[in-house]
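tool=predict chain=A
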Amino acid sequence: MVQGLFPLDVLARWIHIGTVITLVGGTAFVRFVLLPSMESLEESAKTKLHDAVASRWKRIVHIGIVLILFSGLYNYVRLAAVHRGDSVYHAVLGVKILLALAVFFLASALVGRSAAFEALRRNRRVWLGVVVTLAAVIVALSGFVKVRGTPAAPGGATPSRTTAVSPARATPGRCAANTGDGAIPPTRGAA
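tool=predict ok
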């Protein structure tokens, strides 16, 4: 693992989490605030507001998907060595990635213009609810793998949680042992 990438690790996590917050928050706003509020508008005003919001939101959604994909790939590559052989981590991460791809598809279909997805757009309220629900599951899975830590080293200590330290910043003061290879070994009795 390449050492000295701590600033890039922090930037990648900030981009990833910040973009997810923006997209999920925006989706929840549209589903639970904007759409119900638009029901009281006259049809012409509703169409005008929808078109104005949709043209701006579409760009945010598409840029957000790209940022999440690239930052997520970077984060995965940086942590792959730490979780080598950890089947639970990779299984949960696989489910998280599949759910994220479903969210990306639905989000793109809902902001797109393709006639093939017009039925989704006509039932926008339901599908936005599905997107918000899937996003909540993804966040829960992310939280699980984050606080779960890494498994015990072979032939040794019991599994425990790790500190939230970038592999590039692992130091003896932050983990039980610093092997120098960039991997963060599990700590004992971490809170």
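The helical segments are 6-38, 43-80, 87-111, 118-122, 124-148. The first helix runs from residue 6 to 38.
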